Amino acid sequence: MGLWFAERLSRPVGRLTGAAQRVGGGDLDVQVREEEGDDEIAMLGRYFNQMTRQLKGQRETLLDNTRQIERRRRMFNSVLSSVTSGVVGLDDQGRVSFVNRSAERLLGWSEDRQSVPLNVAVPEFGALYQQLVSGERNVVQQEVKVVRDGQQENLLVRMATRSRDDGSLEGYVVAFDDVSDLVAAQRMAAWGDVAQRIAHEIKNPLTPIQLSAERIKRKFRRQLDEENAATLEDLTGVIVRQTEDLRRIVDEFSKFARMPEPKRAPEDVVQLLRGALLLQEMGQPNVQFTMELPDQKLMADLDATMISQALTNLIKNAGEAIESLVERGAPEGHSPMIGVTLMQDGKQALIRIMDNGIGLPEDRARLFEPYVTTREKGTGLGLPIVKKIIEEHGGTLVLEDAPQFKGQPNAGAMAVVRLPLAGAENPANGVV
To answer: Can you say whether the dihedral through the CA atoms of 122, 127, 130, 131 is positive or negative?
Structure first.
């Protein structure tokens, strides 16, 4: 009888022990044989089976939730990675916790900025972040200027708080877009309207002023002695010269305000560039020109007069940049050089005009805005007019740092022009 009772007790306990070991190994499908009766051993088996069933259901629920969270996380990352806006997530202490690709591109980040305070990672955002933290509003927005890789970008930045379900602060979200092109377009439109009004108001009295000065000189010169006659001629000459300068400025106003419609015809870009180079070589005898032009023709449908004007202006600007460097003191061993290259890049003609002059300012994007110039005698309308001409032909113009000429102590600026060739798609006018 003792052996029978001992076996009746030990066998279910042994089965429970083995099943418990399997559960500990992760097998939640295990079940023990349930004994008949209502004694403690039978109830223990039933409770054990019930426990494993509940554990299995809870585990499957957790796995489903984990899979859903992972799917949502992948979709969240995919959406944030594909949007053009920069997005930066911050924790409740203002440290960077998430950065999407657009943010890395716009801010020029090449290293991991995780756990770095925002005012350290992007100092330009610091003032706006402090305004959000110390203010009563949950959302702040402001245009912020950021300089990256020598270029200034206008970013429209929006910051907002993130809260948990219980209302406590979880962190912050920073979203921003590059609105540099929009700002530049608005300024160009505003300057075009101003230029048109000023040109109209100034040009009318210029001719009467010049004619009156010349008439005064002719009428009173014979009535005065030699000294006073010379003074009169000098003073009227100043009026005439200043009138001519005003007329030249007004003409540039008019060109900028009302750019004529291009009269397109098949033209050889190589020949146009060679003509502009020949003209500037004669006008800048102290500058050494190097050129790399293809032997074959590169045909494009364009206005030869307007494109020639644009190319001539760019080469002339390169010479003036060298003059500015010489005036300020060129480094030892400096020899004035301008390099021009032309090649076919797919369906585009790629033109590079580089110099070893004074170089580009930090805020180089503003050089395309009217009346922004680095020269004392410049009007600031040359580059905006050139950019408008090239864009009217479906091309692009950008300013970059020039590669250093061999044997030269410094590098200057480089204008990169792209023009669609014949048969390529023209963004401004469809198919050429």
So the answer is: negative
Give dist(CA 315, CA 382) in Å, integer: 12
Name residue 163's amino acid. Answer: S
Tell me the C-alpha distance between 303 and 345, whole Å.
Answer: 21
Reading the block at residue 17, the tokens are 């022990």
| For residues 71-99, average pLDDT | 81
Q: Kindly state the tokens that stand for 425.
A: 């798609």
Q: For residue 427, which phi and psi values (nearest 5 degrees)?
A: -60, -25
Task: Name the DSSP letter for residue 81.
Answer: H
183 in a structural domain: no
Cα–Cα distance for residue pair 171/94, rounded to 1 Å: 7
- pLDDT tens digits, one per residue of 277-323: 988 888 888 899 999 999 899 999 998 988 998 999 899 999 989 98
Mean pLDDT of the chain: 81
Asked if residue 30 has pLDDT above 70, the reply is yes
pTM recorded for the entire structure: 0.53
Tell whether 371 and 300 lie within a shared domain. Answer: yes
Q: Residue 266 pLDDT > 80, yes or no?
A: yes
The C-alpha angle 258, 260, 262, rounded to 5 degrees, equals 150
Which tens digits make up the pLDDT trace of 163-205?
888 878 889 999 998 887 777 677 666 666 666 666 666 767 7
Domain that holds residue 229: 202-257
Q: Is residue 194 part of a domain?
A: no
Contacts of 149 (CB under 8 A, 6+ apart): 108
Strands 348-355 and 337-345, by their bridges, are antiparallel
Query: In the chain, how many domains are there?
Result: 4
| Beta-bridge partner residues of 397 | 417
Q: Does any domain span residue 293?
A: yes
Q: How far is CA 166 from CA 90, 97, 115, 169, in A?
A: 19, 21, 25, 9
Give yes or no for a contact between 16 and 40, defined as CB atoms under 8 angstroms apart.
no
Nearest to 268 by CA among 104, 56, 419, 101: 419
Q: Are residues 346 and 402 in the same domain?
A: yes
Asked if 66 and 94 sit in the same domain, the reply is no
CB contact at 8 A, 88 and 174 = yes
Share of the chain above pLDDT 70, in %: 83
Domain membership flag for residue 227: yes
On whether the CB atoms of residues 388 and 428 are closer than 8 A, the answer is no
